[in-house]
Amino acid sequence: MSFDKLLEADQRHIDGASRSEITKYFSDEFTRNGGSEWLSTNNRYIVDAAEKFKIDFDANPKTVDCRGLISYISASAPTHLIDGWSFYSRAVEALLRGDSGAAIHLAYYTELRAAMSILASEGIGVFKNKHPIITSDKSYEVVNKVIGWDKDSGAYKRNPDTAGTHRIVWPLLAYWSKTHKASDLINSIIRPEGIELSNWLNATKSHTSGLAISEYLFSKWGIDLANLHEDHQNRNIVSYQPSELRITKDPPIDDVLNFVCETWSFLQPSPGGRFLDLEKALLKHAITVSSRSVIDKILIKRELNLSNDITDSYCKFFDAKKIPLILKLSISGSDKSSPSYPMEILARSFLLLFIATSSVKSHFSAAGATEFEFFWKRFLSTRLCYGKAETTEEALILWEDISEIVDATQAWSKENKLATTLGNWRKDNLLGANQLPGFELAAIWGLAA
Asked: Phi/psi at 341 (nearest 5 deg)?
């Protein structure tokens, strides 16, 4: 299938997008406001940004508030991300209730928000039909067209219509993923033992560059954003047509519970907003993608300056044949009627959320922004029913509660393999049914820790 692409002129705009302007917002304006709100209520674009930007851009002369626009796009990076984790939570809740249609619908919008957050972190705004790109000179460019595949002529042609939100996201993300900006981000995110991905790839004599790894990961994890526009009829069927008239086979209950439990297992938080087990899994995935089957222990120890014990543990980890379910599902391409498809799109949306979370967190770290109580305390008491926590350390300790619920769910699954349903699981595990979908915790751990 041939997907939409950006015009060459717009590719240059993406090349010139300024990530540093986003960091600057969090070090300057956000900090000056006391870290008490994501965006000043005086910002012109805080409500209905797309429509107001269109009015300002179309005016003669243009009346765009450039500083306000930069602030809005900057603040949209964490807020799209937070909404994405909430959509993911509701998607998992739907999956645990046997509602695959709602899970797919919400997982798609999770992917959309995760992609919008990643792009906003890079200075790329996704609006309605005029999409502003922040440049390093505190100005902007606009992208609003794409090149689409014309089946009749068998060639790409410029689409005369403006590209809306759903249509523009994949061309933006796909082109950006091929740039060194994307590989630099992935390189800094996947860094077990504090060692960046590129150094691991060198030490394992991997055959694939970091740039190729970045492009590969986004091509797999963002495929729904590409497919679901091209195949918009299927997306509309899931979103707008009665699900009871197209009942599909549900995934096995063991698969559902294992998927949710494994997802949580990758989210054990660490200070600095990192998820170390997920970083390790992605490192191994990258080495596997590089077709590196034999790992030289001596080379790893020498190149990365690791102790014997740590080197041994990583070599055993790399040699283990088991592939995490979430990574296996993320690169699967099952038909949308397949029982596994809801978990496949959830796996991809989860991994895009991880990238988005790490990207936003890197802005906060570079800017020295640390005050986010206005966000996470409200989420703990309302979205997650955990009551009060006075420090981020107390929020991190909530992992112990989740870990106990995961262990109890896995034990129940082993003991109840026959003649059981998700309804039975919820009946026997009321606490788990309430807390397991609460993936908003990952937003708190990833952004505020």
From this structure: -60, -40
Domain boundaries, the chain: 8-448
Strands 147-150 and 140-143: unpaired
CA dist 169 and 255 (Å) reads 31
Query: How does pLDDT run across 92-149, given as a tens digit for each residue?
Result: 999 999 998 899 999 999 999 999 999 999 999 999 999 999 998 789 999 998 998 7
By three-state DSSP, how is residue 127 classified?
coil
User: Measured between alpha carbons, how far is 102 from 94 in angstroms, rounded to an integer?
Assistant: 6
d(CA 321, CA 99): 33
pLDDT tens for each residue of 374-409: 999 888 888 877 766 778 888 888 899 999 999 999
Q: Is the confidence at residue 251, as pLDDT, over 80?
A: yes
User: How far apart are alpha carbons 55 and 69 in whole angstroms?
Assistant: 13
Residue carrying the six token digits 């596997």: 288
Identify the H or E element spanning 132: strand 131-134
CB 341 within 8 A of CB 248: no
Give the C-alpha separation, 107 to 404, whole Å.
26
The answer for residues whose C-beta is within 8 angstroms of residue 229's C-beta and 6 or more apart is: 4, 166, 167, 170, 235
Q: Which two tokens stand for residue 68?
A: 């306000």
Q: Does pTM top 0.85 for this prediction?
A: yes
Kindly give, in sequence order, each residue whose CB lies less than 8 Å from that of residue 304, ignoring residues fewer than 6 positions away.
Answer: 193, 195, 199, 200, 203, 311
What is the Cα–Cα distance from 420 to 66, expressed in whole angstroms?
A: 58
Q: 10 Å Cβ neighbour count for 209?
A: 13
What tokens does 413 get? 């699954």
Tokens at 154, concatenated:
């068998």
